[in-house]
Design a protein that fits this description.
Layout lengths: L1 E5 L1 H4 L10 H12 L5 E5 L6 H6 L4 E2 L2 H27 L4 E5 L4 E2 L2 E2 L2 H8 L3 E5 L1 E5 L2 E5 L1 H12 L3 E6 L37 H14 L4 E5 L17 E2 L1
Parallel strand pairs: 1-2, 1-10, 2-7, 4-7, 10-11
Antiparallel strand pairs: 3-9, 5-6, 8-9, 11-12
Helix pairs in contact: 2-4, 6-7
The structure holds adenosine-5'-triphosphate and Isopentenyl phosphate.
Length: 242
Amino acid sequence: MIVIKLGGSAITKKSEYRSFNESVVVNIVKTLKGINDNMIIVHGGGSFGHIKAKEYGLPGFASERTMKGMNIVHNDMANLNLKISKILYSSGIYNIPLPVSSLVYDNKKNYAVFGKYLNMGITPVSYGDTYIHGNKIGIYSGDNIAYDVARRFHPSAVVFFSDVDGIYDKNPKTNPDAKLLKTISGEFQHDDATPDVTGGIMNKYRKMRGISDLGIPVYLINGLYPERIYNIGKNNFTGTVI
Ligand code: ATP
Ligand code: IP8
């Protein structure tokens, strides 16, 4: 079994509210269909999650405003999830959406249901979303879900798709001379001015390191070239291995 995280930067246009990159998702799904293995799929929020979360002060203490934001963000994320679920279904990948609010509450997590669906050959599809955390409305990142399910189910690999070729020594979007790190274990530079409410590339890297520490191989690949997943372990692989 492998875990796939579809990054919001690949599956949406992250700066444009609710702008879905349908052709990118269709292409990724076509590639996933060619992999002869069970999968857990997790997707991020991109412009369906992060823009309104920031606007409504999420994560934050429960208030009229944050509760309204919770509802908007959850509905938008469910909407994005439905689009992805339908594309998976159209490719013959039968799947079941599992929202984070039914899995995580305060510090309790229950991922057992993933195993039930996996055993039947149905692909669980979860996604970053709002949830209640003490007296706060939290945002649980898809990267955290990927870590949680990796810890629980010990997949043979975890693959993160994003909109860059991998992790660079500095942000490749703002530094044309940035160098791709084929393998990484230390620190790297990232932009502090992130538009992302879940910590951007830094939280992703922390979670990737956490998965790697469990003894599971972890990769970051450009979702615009999903076929690169077939070159994992080969000399011509383009991406980052943690
Ligand atoms: P989402 O959280 O919406 O699911 P995502 O998982 O695709 O999105 P982001 O959190 O947006 O990923 O992180 C990817 C972005 O991180 C890239 O688009 C890139 O601009 C930025 N970034 C900053 N520093 C680096 C770096 N050193 N290497 C690679 N990307 C970096
Ligand atoms: O994009 C959080 O998940 P991520 C999504 O994987 C929301 O960090 C709701 C902002």
